[in-house]
What does this fold into?
Amino acid sequence: MREAWLALLAVAAGFALSFLAMGLFWIAMAWPVQALVVLPFGATAWALARWSGNPRRAALLLLVGATPLGLLFTLFRDREGSHLLPVLMVVLWALGTLAGASLAAGRPDGQAGE
It folds into this structure.
């Protein structure tokens, strides 16, 4: 039962973070500020991966939650009429999620392998 709640939490967190990013886009926040959304994605992936003990699954479920609005986000254009920056923002979400999960996948004592 705990696994089901963790899965639901991961999907909901991914959706909530993508909703936050969409809100920043909607109010015309500067692109560098929007790029900082990578930090909450990474922190959430790290926390979920540490809590669940399965970093791959946590990252996958977080990205599944972010997918619907992420796909919508990539359809928008920037001031120059390009899709490049919205696509870059969604790629940053994914990279932040993968970075957080990979940090959580390290050794629990925090020491590098010998």
Q: What stands out?
A: Helices lie at 2-26, 31-35, 38-52, 55-73, 84-104. The radius of gyration is 15 Å.
